[in-house]
Design goal:
Blueprint: E1 2-6, H1 12-28, E2 33-39, E3 46-52, E4 62-67, E5 80-88, E6 103-108, E7 124-129, E8 134-138, H2 144-178, E9 188-191, E10 196-200
Parallel strand pairs: 4-9
Antiparallel strand pairs: 1-3, 1-5, 2-3, 4-5, 6-7, 7-8, 9-10
Amino acid sequence: MILQLSSGMGPVECRVAVGGICRSLLEEFPELEMVTGTKGEVEGSFSSVILSSDGDLSELEGTMEWICKSSYRPGHKRKNWFIDVSIIPDAAQVDERIKTSDLKIEAFHSGGPGGQNVNKVETGIRIIHLPTGITVSSTRERSQFMNKQDALKKLSAILKQTNADGKDRQKNDAWSRHAQITRGNPIRIYEGKGFKLTFRKEK
């Protein structure tokens, strides 16, 4: 499971809240791991943090509140700061290793230029990757062996591109959620510079 903590478009105090709540969550949930983070302008602050967990921590999704008087803007009356915790769908990764047991290989008569063996010998090769349903074929070479190698190269390239596209979608999803913060009705409230957890909404 991938979690994103975000300050959205909030001020510096919200970025401090992201950093402090992130540290509190890492202490509370040993299975959590910080994957990456975009640092804010003051020490220990983040505009966004990505966390990963093997367990189900969907209970953490929602708005979290930090109650603390600002030490960055003396005299500022506001002391309630909100951050967003979103679950980012895992990028669907396919196994790029091509296993013979995952392949259905079919030979067919090749058409077009290729000499006297065209339509007499099945030199064309079609490979179906059973786990994904991806189908590739090759008729460019004169021999079945060479066409099989060519089709395997195509399949390998498609599998790698599929994984790259999945990661891009995951990044885009994280970015689109970055600015979405619903204030009010927080699922958790932390207080003070020590980020003491004072409220936890039961689900």
